[in-house]
């Protein structure tokens, strides 16, 4: 007898460079591509309203850089398993560029990981519809916890998005 099927759920999460949560979007089925989720959330249009903002994204968002005039930075695609032979220096430079991007993004991944530490999200056994209520609540608690741990930042909170552009 088979148990209940596990379904994956994704949410668009934006953090600051230190990994503190800034925005948590609506949950969507894991079968929706990352780019589709970004377009549905209206992030491309919002980034056009805020010049000078740069987002570091993972490989699932490749192609978004051209749509946002370089506001979204993604890693170069990984080399294929059977690549065309290239000089070792070129391959090493490619790998160094991917590692540099990953080292900048690690704090973002830590910020996302703080959400997953909460049992309400990591082992959600209820209806997926309830996650749209649970995720913002947990994100608010995590955000509050992060600001409480660093009181020197309370005097200088991050600048908010313009009115009407919350995700």
Question: What descriptors fit this protein?
Answer:
167 residues, alpha+beta, two-stranded antiparallel ribbon, two-stranded parallel ribbon, 4 strands, globular
Question: Could you please describe the fold and organization of this structure?
Answer:
The structure is a single chain. The chain is built from 6 helices and 4 strands. The strands form 2 sheets. It has a two-stranded antiparallel ribbon. It has a two-stranded parallel ribbon with strand order 3-4. It is of the alpha+beta class and 167 residues long. It has helices spanning 34-41, 43-49, 64-67, 88-116, 119-122, 131-149; strands at 9-15, 21-29, 55-56, 72-73. Helices cover 43% and strands 12% of the residues. The mean pLDDT is 78.
List the SSEs and their pairings:
Elements: E1 9-15, E2 21-29, H1 34-41, H2 43-49, E3 55-56, H3 64-67, E4 72-73, H4 88-116, H5 119-122, H6 131-149
Parallel strand pairs: 3-4
Antiparallel strand pairs: 1-2
Write a brief caption for the model.
The protein is an alpha+beta fold. It is built from six helices and four strands, in the order ββααβαβααα.
Report the β-strand fraction as a percent range: 5-15%
Oligomer: single chain
Helix content: 40-55%
Rg, Å, rounded: 18 Å
Strand count, sense and barrel status of the largest sheet are:
2 strands, antiparallel
Give the H and E element order: EEHHEHEHHH
């Amino acid at each position: 007898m088979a148990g209940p099927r596990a379904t994956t759920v994704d949410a668009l999460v934006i953090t600051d460079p230190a990994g503190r949560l800034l925005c948590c979007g609506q949950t969507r089925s894991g079968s929706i591509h990352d780019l589709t989720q970004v377009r549905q959330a209206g992030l491309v249009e919002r980034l056009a309203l805020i010049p000078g903002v740069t987002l570091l994204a993972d490989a699932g968002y490749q192609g978004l850089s051209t749509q946002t005039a370089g506001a979204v930075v993604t890693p170069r695609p990984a080399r294929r398993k059977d690549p065309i032979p290239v000089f070792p220096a070129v391959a090493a430079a490619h790998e160094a560029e991917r590692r540099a991007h990953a080292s900048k993004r690690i704090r973002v991944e830590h910020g996302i990981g703080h959400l997953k530490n909460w049992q309400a999200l990591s082992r959600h056994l209820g209806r997926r519809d309830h996650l749209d209520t649970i995720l913002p609540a947990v994100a608010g608690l995590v955000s509050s916890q992060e600001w409480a741990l660093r009181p020197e930042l309370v005097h200088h909170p991050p600048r908010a998005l313009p009115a009407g552009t919350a995700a």
